[in-house]
Amino acid sequence: MGCCGQRMIMDAVAIGVALLAFVSVFTVMKLGSSIQSSLVGSASGCQFPAVFNFGDSNSDTGAASTMIRLVPPPNGQTFFGKPSGRYSDGRLIFDFIAEKLGLPYLSAYLDSMGTNFRHGANFAVGGATIKPEPSVNPIHLSLQLYQFEQFKSRAIELYNQGNKLYAMSLPRPEWFSKALYTTDIGQNDLHYGLLLLTEEQVKASIPGLIDHFALAIEV
Q1: Per its UniProt record, what InterPro entries does this chain match (predicted)?
Q2: CB 100: neighbour CB atoms within 10 A?
Q3: Edge-to-edge strand order for the sheet containing 180-184?
């Protein structure tokens, strides 16, 4: 492939990344029928009792480490002093959001050891994609949303049983409609596309990715 062809692919990817990034940032919002505006300028600030995140390695806080293998050093060395399941030497953007909201760092949904989901859960997994194909990771966005629905249903069921242990480790049922929902995903769809598809197929796939992403958010 000549320089011209490579440049065209990079241009297509750049456009796709920009569009997906815009959509991802736009979806840092409250979902559900009771969506409310954040309290801008008020003394109390934004009040979200819980956060639920979906995505890939940009916001994975331990799922890939649990599912595949431990994230090795030097990841985590700057802030945590050791690998923390994050593909970063410190905190992720998602961690700073939690800090600003006065919430603890979220545990990965797939990590069952020493986790607490009182203030939300993180469904992001390194290598995840928006669409099921092409991908080397089975935990794509639609599956993450399915996991969330299972988590929500089970959490409400267990909480309503009145067990104090569940009450301390799971969100209150009414928090799901008041929570902050975030997502950062899409880069791997383009990455795998460049490895497996032609230049024209990569460019043609971008609108479909955005449509699939938007549909998942609506659900």
Answers
A1: GDSL (IPR001087), SGNH_hydro_sf (IPR036514)
A2: 10
A3: 120-122, 51-55, 180-184
